[in-house]
UniProtKB/TrEMBL annotation:
Pfam families: Hydant_A_N, Hydantoinase_A. Residues 189-417 form the Hydantoinase A/oxoprolinase domain. This is Hydantoinase/oxoprolinase family protein. SUPFAM superfamilies: Actin-like ATPase domain. InterPro entries: ATPase_NBD, Hydant_A_N, Hydantoinase_A, Oxoprolinase-like. Residues 7-169 form the Hydantoinase/oxoprolinase N-terminal domain. It comes from the Bacteria. It comes from Sinorhizobium psoraleae.
Amino acid sequence: MTSHLLLGIDTGGTYTDAVLFSEAAGVVAKAKALTTRHELAVGIAGAVEAVLEKAKVPVTAISLVSLSTTLATNALVEGQGGRAGLVMIGFGPEDLKRDGLLEALGADPVLFLPGGHNVHGGETPLDMSALDEALPTLASQVSSFAIAGYFAVRNPAHEKRVRERIREVSHLPVTCSHELSSKLGGPRRALTTLLNARLVSMIDRLIGSCEDFLKRRGIHVPMMVVRGDGALISAAEARLRPIETILSGPAASLVGARHLTGLENAVVSDIGGTTTDVAVLEKGRPRLDAEGAVVGGFRTMVEAVAMRTYGLGGDSEVRINDRGLKARIDLGPRRFLPLSLAAALHGDAVFAVLEKQLRATHAGRHDGRLAVRTGLPDHLASGLQPQEQALYDRIGMIPLALADLLVSTPQKATLDRLVARGLVHICGVTPSDAMHVLGRQAQWNAAAARLGLEIAARMKDGSGQPIAASAENLAEMIVDRLTRQSSEVILQACLGEDGAGTIDPAASVAVDRALKREPGIVRFSIGLDRPLVGLGASAPVYYPAIAVMLGTDAAIPAEADVANAVGAVVGQVRASVTVFVTTPEEGIFIVNGAGASERFIDQEQAFGVARHRAQSMALETARANGAEEPAATMWEEIDAPEIERGRRLIEARFTASASGRPRIAHH
């Protein structure tokens, strides 16, 4: 039973999950540990040790390790990463103004060299003298290099020569644009290459810390990483092309959803503490973003799942607007530390504040809210403004009532800045607390959740009435709001996929009437054409009601809380290669891609060579990416319009795709 266990690890922003999986029995054991951002190995070790302990198996039973992560995505969103030097071959400074390249470059150095190729792969001579002059200085200022050449996807010779020279002199990691994408569009390819170069050291650290831990534990097996399109690549390849791991976490959850539910077509929604991610499964595959993944506001050329992320989760702030005749509740986008969790961590301090506020004759503006440090290391709290520092010094590791902390109105804005920098958590009422009051969740402290909701329920609406009759009553209102807001974001994502993204479900009267099932002479109804798969630890408590509102079936797998880690081990290795045939003049056919340019005078011969090249290169790449016995499929697109004297070839594209299961260790 214990032979050939696969170990899946997912390092998310909050938790690191580990799963032991066998092809025969499915999930054998699962465990979670808090992600330790400053020292990733600690979180990985915590989760893996816990899962091994639960399964009671020896490390020799593991035959493959696979990792999915949101770290690359988070790093780009938060603007982190190393400094990179960009070398542009055959481009000019005006090309930086396209596709957001200048903005992405920021203060990083850029160098322009004469050279590059034309659409048929013919070259403009390469001149490297400016590079030789600048390299010694540049190498001391950056942690990696990115190279983008004009039409390098048709002929990468110049990129390769520049790469050799940089490696010779600097010994730093170098990324070439032709290794990342075969699509035309120089500036966007340069942008993708630049972002890749910035991520190299960070993903290198993650994979390194994972490998070190495995080595220490005596787990000597192949290691894979999930790519943004859900396919697997070997750890060695992920180190060279870390940009391909952006959106790796969401992609893994889709592959996991497909495996755990067996559904070919579904809408998959993953609810975490902070965000909800929505994506579509089509014919068993994640729907990919045709334009390329957008991360941190930049559109890259990376093939990745079309995933939409919204600031709504179980730990979202509950905002109560009491100005109208009836109070309105809204959730998010900020994340709070739930009162039930704050009390589980700091019991007495939290209870003392809440009980005192509930006994007071007059309700205060900041009742039911406390502040506490997040515990980030000191060096990350440097560079604060004097008023921020003064407030930060008053907040400790024990939660403090906001009513006691904020003595003037401007301090509220100062506190918000400390929260945005990740230095302080605000503790307050969240949907998780409402679920504790209703008895549908029980992992933290329900008594503190009840006190928080009793305090909030006393608020008066515009007509002078309390906004809710009891804590239970308010809890139902909050959960109803979460059901409604989740339904809206799922509809928004699906309308976007349908090309109807201009409809805003939150503002549409028609959608409102359909979701409320309001009677009327005109009946509106709305529904999804496929089941809704709910993922995340709290999916079983929220998603049945959301599916009912959306008029579809809910599919919530038993392992919904670790779908990412399951997706990491059940994925396939996939590689695609495209080879082009163009005609610069009548009767001449040039083959480009997957090797040096070749000229032919016979069209069929050129096509045959192109097919062979694409197929053998795809199989070779899949094996390099870690596939055991890949199989290839082929498709071709030929642009040859009819003109007076018969058909004239403009361009033919031959694409081969090879896929297979990853190689495993045979003990």
